[in-house]
Amino acid sequence: MTDAPEAAVTDQTPAPVPLLDPREGIPPVVASPEALASVVAAFSAGTGPVAVDAERASGYRYGQRAYLVQLRRAGAGTALIDPIACPDLTALGTALSTTEWVLHAASQDLPCLAEVGMRPQHLFDTELAGRLAGFPRVGLGAMVENVLGYSLEKGHSAVDWSTRPLPEPWLRYAALDVELLVDLRDALEEELTQQAKLGWALEEFAAIAAAPPPEPRAEPWRRTSGMHKIRRRRQLAVVRELWTARDRIARERDVSPGRVLPDAAIVAAALATPQNLHALAVLPGFGHRTGRRQLEQWMAAVERARALPENELPQPSAPVTGPPPPRAWADKDPAAAARLSAARTAVTALAQSLGLPQENLITPDTVRRLCWSPPKEPTPEEISAVLSSHGARSWQVELVTPVLVAALVSPSG
């Protein structure tokens, strides 16, 4: 018998098994002090890590508050908690304070969990673990499928979780999101151990757990989509005034700002700077469905911008607190541009050899700051100190310092 040609060989990887229902069924939603007390007692008596997830109403409601909190722990099963009916989960957070929390993309959920009184001291982030382990796709569904062989139905991820009562299919989806998180954590810990990366991951997890709440963004109106079209300072003032008015209205109504007035409408008004209500009403986004009172609010914002004296108009760009954009380096400081090019090349090569994304090896911002203002003597000790001052963890400092020293000492190669 002759061997079959290579082209005839088929992939023997088994198809993922659909995960359709939680093992113990869909638990009732916890929406009373008595039910919450029972959950606290059950999870206090549970064993091992606790899987934690939260659902928000992004795109529907103002802010990023949690509208459902899901937990699962051995010995306690799964709990689905309504944080609107039970807004203070401090007792639950305290009961789990010494327990390792398993989250997927922890930085997305930690702020809304902190709002209801839940803050972990120890955590394991399965998304970040996947990145460090070199997985090309690190969404929860992809990780569960590739690592554990199950497929999750993700059709309800972008629904309005502020809806009450929550439909049963949504609750099933929410319960399944924590069903296998601890299993995924265990498999990823083993994979990271085999790759000699577990220590790196543990440092990253500790940094996430210890991080202070994020600072409010300065001049958030500058992140309006389409801002690249705005050239004049008066137009920038229109964007700022409309954005501020929209944000106030959205907060008062508890509605996503984009549902009050789209970014495209703000930019259109800024470009046109309409002189009266009729001129505003014909612009995209201010159509026939906009009531006269609303149009008057937006027109008042435009008029405030038009009335500003020159010295109160916003500057063309936000204040720069770090290096200039890299595209300007060649003109401003050719030597710095050469250092950055050499450093980027070295960091990219090292990240590829380690099998992890470049941004997880060291943040691009840290590399830019180092290359723009390097120490006078780029010794390993000096470079390590600069990296640490910008928040690099010890494993990152140890790995990237040698290649960055080489790049700074001899940027031309």
Write up what this structure looks like.
The protein has 413 residues and is α/β, with parallel strands linked by helices. It has three domains: 194 residues, Ribonuclease H-like superfamily/Ribonuclease H (Nucleotidyltransferase, domain 5, 2-Layer Sandwich); 93 residues, HRDC domain (DNA polymerase, domain 1, Orthogonal Bundle), CATH 1.10.150.80; 84 residues, HRDC domain (DNA polymerase, domain 1), CATH 1.10.150.80. The protein is built from 19 helices and eight strands. A six-stranded mixed beta sheet has the order 2-5-4-3-6-7, sandwiched between helices. A hairpin with a 2-residue loop joins strand 4 and strand 5. Helix 15 packs antiparallel against helix 17 and helix 15 crosses helix 19. The longest helix has 21 residues. The N and C termini lie far apart (56 Å). The N terminus is likely disordered. InterPro entries: 3'-5'_exonuclease_dom (IPR002562), Exo_C (IPR041605), HRDC-like_sf (IPR010997), HRDC_dom (IPR002121), HRDC_dom_sf (IPR044876), RNase_D-like (IPR051086), RNaseH-like_sf (IPR012337), RNaseH_sf (IPR036397).
Beta percentage is 5-15%
The residue-averaged pLDDT reads 94
Give the full name of the CATH homologous superfamily of the largest domain. Answer: Ribonuclease H-like superfamily/Ribonuclease H
How many strands appear in the DSSP assignment? 8
Could you say which structural class the secondary elements and strand pairing correspond to?
Answer: alpha/beta
How many domains in all? 3
Gross morphology = flat
CATH architecture of the largest domain: 2-Layer Sandwich
Elements, N to C (H/E): EEHEEEHEHEHHEHHHHHHHHHHHHHH
How large is the radius of gyration?
Answer: 26 Å
Major sheet strand order: 2-5-4-3-6-7
CATH topology name of the largest domain, in short, is Nucleotidyltransferase, domain 5
Helix content: 40-55%
Largest sheet features:
6 strands, mixed
